[in-house]
Amino acid sequence: MSGANKESASRRRLGNWMPAREEHTAAFRIEIAARARERRAGIALSSVVQDLGKLIDGDPVLRMNLSRAIDDAIEQGKQLGYSNIGELLNVVDYLTTFSPPFSESAPVATPLNAMLEWPMCMPTGYAVFRDPAFNARLRRVLSTWASFLSGPRSRTWLVEDEPQGWFSAPALAKLGMEDFVHDRSLEHWGFASWNAFFTRHLRAGARPVASPDDSAVIVNACEASPFDVREDVKLLDSFWIKSQPYSLREILTSSDESLARRFVGGTVYQGYLSAYNYHRWHAPVDGKVVEAYNVDGTYYSDAESEGEDPSGLNDSQGYTTAVAARAVIVIDSADPVIGEVACVFVGMAEVSSCQVVVRPGDDVRKGDELGFFQFGGSTYCLLFRRNVIERFVPQPPWHDDVPPLKVNSALAYVRRSA
Questions:
Q1: 3 state SS of 15
Q2: Residue 4 pLDDT greater than 70, yes or no
Q3: Which residues, by range, are in coiled-coil regions (predicted)?
Q4: pTM of the model as a whole
């Protein structure tokens, strides 16, 4: 086994969105492709998938790059389940009516990511998944899937049946459903759709706010595991290289560059969310919302510096803060020592919508809800100004086999001598 393949075999996907072993993902791809072929007979592609196909067919460079990415992956021995763009479009169309089942041993919570993961990290694939027109059409496809997941037909696996039911005993051991609002006496435990289950609400008191009256304690904005902490961040940096430093102007993408400049020299904390955990966002500090906006971006673009590896999207989480679809909420803290805190909630893979529920001018208390991820793999970061943070509660080295930090629990302490 070559050094590169040894590295690929030893790397782990974060957050339980995808199987840890390639053979499990390959088996999923083959099964989904077979279902797509069976369903295709006599059924036209949906209009959004047809439009995606027309874009690819009408752009010779895009068509060439995607075809070569598929061919290159197959030539390397990857089992995709499809061999050309037409077959891939059939798969994409099938997945717009797919509800992810639970799996204890080989979870695939982001099925389109599973189907695309090798072509997107081939040399020509990087250009495809950064193409603005391609991402705009892909966003329409993902929005169609999100609409399906918001309807009653998406509840196929919101059942107690083993092994694929989300309310089976193995699933409940991971979900901690006692912390969430539900009614086991009702069909599908009272959830109107898959998305209602995915964005389930916490029971009152399930996540108490750490030190609610002490502004020196900053709390976790998401139920997430630590990914990275960087200090002395720059206005502009080479976010696409192996170390993936944070580049403030690209992350915030504000028409007013002074916003990014106010965080120069500051600190970034980043965490990633798990498929099994809570997906709503909460305020890390008391204060007033001064900015709240969405940024369009990519969905499956990863950094070439991570190499040809299916975990590239996970390992590109620093890079995704500057290029992926995301929501930005800036809170001007009630504590002048803290000043502004920028909260950036990043949609990875199948996230088609980052829903913001606050607006500029709103007053928020630490622990108040700010918004939620509609569905998919997710990461987030908090940006602090220079000399604000004394220390973070989580400390490296980071581990992906421990429980995530609870939302509203203590994340960091403010430098009182600032």
A1: coil
A2: no
A3: none
A4: 0.87
